[in-house]
Design goal:
single chain; alpha+beta; 5-stranded antiparallel sheet; 23 helices
Length: about 750
């Protein structure tokens, strides 16, 4: 290929890659003065700013402030609000009080209602909740304002549900679905969520049946920037991540759509989930979903959305959302296999293909996968070894994570270019057989095991077309080959970036393998580049550039602060006290209290493991402070038949936020907390002996009823925690430095007391 054509085709490939990302979400432009009937990102941002001024977890001082703000804004729109207040333990055995906010816009016809939903509580204890889920609440408030300004009466009733206690176990959704009369009237839910502070907002649907009805109506609604694919939902269902909509599907058989963004995952559940760090493009993307969907579904018949049929679906630029039925899966695969066999037969018959050369083609392909695979597997452990502080970013995605994605993608390209350069004497068409064969194996496996990803067959069809061109033409048009490469670029490029963003840098292996797989589909074009070795060198230089960039931004700073944790633990049984931390690398701040030579196992301090199975890393002896433990009183201890029934009342002698109760390995027949039964399924799968957690509002007491076999012995351990370590008068701890933030997902800045009760 001529040098100019090589340059031009590379440029076109780069533009196609850029376009695959650019087409996923809108560009924010200041729009405060836009017409009143349109969604304004700026007006929504004002709500985000007001909601996220302070942490507002359940039980916190500002929790009620945020609730009152939302009610006031709904009232401004002429809507009459109501409060649903109650207690639930949900599926996670996290007992709490939830206060849901509800209002309803009456439709012109009877039928099932449309629900717009988000949650207003922030994560305990320091998160400001701008993205999660202040952005969702703001999207709904602004969207409803714009909708009402049109003066149109919807066909279906519209219920606005702002749930509470989502962060504690989806408790507000559980309360609504299982106890509110409106739950029986719902046909569809649109739920707005966040798991980071930026990036593309993905559509993930929830349904117990086929998805065809939902997807067809979604396409009719015609949002401008649909970012959705059936593989992502298949993966989502396998991950331990639920939203309020999960409760609607599981408990109420109510289906709907989630709209959630996951980039800048390092801000998730931290104090940096604030107004300034929320990506304006992302908020505009949420609005671009809500307005057409609200317009469409408020006038659609929601009674007929259920379907037994499933659709494969995926988004690409220009075509938005492409769909086809599951019934096409095996016929499409069969056509691809037949086309491949026919092309092989034709190629060997015309002697365009050579058996020995085809066999040789497996060598560079396997090398281009194996080498990045090994590097990708060890990349995250290596980075944590090089930069130990990364271990304390529990989300698994570092502040400089995007630079690492670029770096390892370019390293993969360098390896691929280098591998194929060494086989430049073998015709491209012979080299291309191995990748197509591998891709057919992948598509066959997807067709059988993971049907949501079968649309990967689309780039295989264009690859087969490219193979036909190579077999029939010695000098094919390079721009035709670019055109045939575009489906692979548009489908796979966003996935390459999304894997480490959504699942952490440990998934760099997946990104590198997928990069190599995508490279293999572009081989008809790349094979004609005479300067593959130079392209390998250029890719290696870019790898080095982004690694250097990542290194220069590896240190923690005021903008990208180090997560730190500290807790004071007082064991009232042994009369010993400890400082404890979840930090793997101690900061100057935590080093004032923690002796790194002692682990939690050394002092037998193994309590309250948090999300991601995070346990205390180091503990040190601490001075005894006058902290009162909970008061546990036994109001009933009796034998009825073969059961021993215990009733306990736990009251708090100080202001606390959380009570955790552990039972060890004792078999439990039944448990109730304040009259609410804990799910039987939870009693059979207690983690680390944890029975339940009570997230406490207004220092309320806990009544516990436990039924055990009468021959069993029971030991209860109570961990009572308050998040006031930095303010408590018994302590004089300095504030965190500005380059430190409270570590999320763990119990932090806490004073914890331990109390044990035994029933022999």
């Amino acid at each position: 290929m001529k040098p100019f054509n090589s340059f031009l085709t590379l440029l076109l490939i780069s533009v196609a890659i850029y376009w695959s990302f650019k087409a996923e979400k809108p560009n924010y432009v200041p729009d405060e003065q836009i017409e009143k009937s349109a969604f304004s990102t700026d007006r929504a941002l004002k709500h985000v700013e007001n909601i996220s001024k302070k942490p507002h977890a359940v039980g916190s001082a500002d929790h009620k402030v945020v609730r009152n703000y939302i009610i006031k804004e709904l009232n401004k729109l002429g809507l009459e609000t109501q409060i649903q207040e109650g207690y639930t333990a949900g599926d996670w055995a996290n007992y709490s009080k939830a206060v849901n906010i509800l209002t309803r816009i009456k439709g012109s016809e009877d039928g099932e209602a449309l629900v717009l939903m988000s949650h207003y509580d922030s994560s305990p204890h320091s998160s400001l909740g701008a993205s999660d889920a202040g952005s969702g609440v703001a999207t709904i408030l602004e969207g409803i304002r714009a909708f009402l300004s049109k003066g149109i009466t919807p066909k279906s009733d519209i219920i606005i549900l702002i749930t509470d206690a989502e962060e504690l176990g989806l408790n507000g959704a559980d309360l609504f679905v299982n106890q509110h009369e409106w739950a029986k009237e719902i046909g569809l839910v649109l739920n707005f969520e966040a798991r980071g502070s930026g990036g593309t907002s993905f559509m993930l649907l929830e349904t117990n049946k086929g998805n065809a009805g939902l997807i067809k109506e979604f396409v009719k609604a015609n949002p401008d920037y649909p970012a959705a694919n059936s593989l992502m939902y298949s993966i989502y269902k396998m991950l331990p991540n639920d939203t309020d909509l999960t409760v609607f599907r599981e408990d109420g058989d109510i289906q709907g759509f989630n709209f959630a963004f996951i980039d800048d995952h390092f801000d998730y559940h931290t104090v940096r989930d604030n107004y300034n760090r929320l990506d304006r493009n992302t908020l505009a993307h949420q609005g671009s979903y809500l307005m057409p969907l609200l317009q469409h579904f408020s006038s659609a018949d929601l009674n007929n959305l259920r379907s037994k049929e499933d659709l494969v679906y995926f988004n690409v630029p220009l075509f938005k959302l492409v769909t086809y039925p599951f019934s096409w899966i095996w016929p499409m695969f069969a056509i691809a296999v037949c086309a491949f066999v026919l092309l092989l037969f034709y190629g060997f018959k015309t002697k365009s293909l050579n058996l020995k050369a085809v066999a040789i083609g497996f060598i560079p392909m396997l090398l281009s996968f194996a080498i990045p695979g090994v590097i990708g597997y060890f990349s995250w452990p290596f980075l944590k070894w090089m930069y130990p502080g990364y271990q304390d970013i529990l989300q698994g995605f570092t502040y400089n994570g995007h630079a690492y994605i670029y770096a390892f993608v370019f390293l993969t390209l360098a390896i691929c270019f280098s591998c194929y350069h060494r086989f430049k004497k073998t015709d491209t068409k012979n080299l291309f057989i191995a990748p197509i064969f591998l891709w057919l194996l992948i598509c066959g496996a997807l067709s059988y095991y993971l049907k949501g990803g079968v649309y990967f067959i689309i780039p295989v069809f264009t690859a087969l077309a490219a193979l036909m061109v190579l077999i029939n033409q010695k000098k094919p048009n390079p721009f035709l080959l670019v055109f045939l490469s575009i489906p692979a670029i548009w489908i796979f490029s966003p996935f390459i970036a999304a894997l480490p963003i959504g699942l952490g840098l440990k998934m760099m292996l997946g990104s590198m393998i997928l990069t190599a797989l995508t490279f293999s589909l572009l081989l008809p074009l790349i094979g004609f580049y005479r300067n593959k070795n130079n392209l390998a060198l250029l890719s290696l230089v870019l790898f080095a550039f982004f690694m250097i960039k990542a290194h220069l931004n590896a240190d923690f700073s005021e903008e990208n602060a180090k997560p730190t944790s500290l807790a004071y633990i007082l064991n009232s049984e042994t009369n010993r006290a400890y400082w404890a931390t979840y930090d793997n690398v101690l900061s100057d701040w935590t080093s004032n209290y923690i002796d790194k030579t002692t682990t939690s196992e050394d002092l037998n301090v193994n309590i309250i493991k948090s999300k991601y199975k995070t346990g205390f890393s180091f503990v040190s002896e601490a001075p005894i402070k006058h902290i009162k433990p909970p008061l546990v009183e036994t109001s009933l201890d009796t034998i009825i038949g073969n059961e021993r029934i215990l009733e306990l009342c736990i009251t708090h002698q100080r202001s606390v936020n959380r009570l955790e109760i552990f039972t060890g390995k004792t078999f439990l027949n039944a448990v109730k907390i304040n009259g609410i039964a804990i799910e039987e399924s939870h009693l059979g799968r207690q983690t680390e002996g944890r029975l339940l957690t009570h997230y406490i509002s207004n220092n309320e007491y806990t009544e516990l009823q436990i039924a055990i076999p009468k021959v069993e012995k029971l030991a209860l351990t109570f961990y009572e925690a308050s998040n006031d370590l930095l303010e408590h008068p018994e302590f004089s701890l300095p504030e965190r430095p500005k380059n430190n933030i409270p570590m999320p997902f763990v119990i932090n800045d806490a004073i914890i007391t331990i109390k044990e009760i035994r029933f022999e």
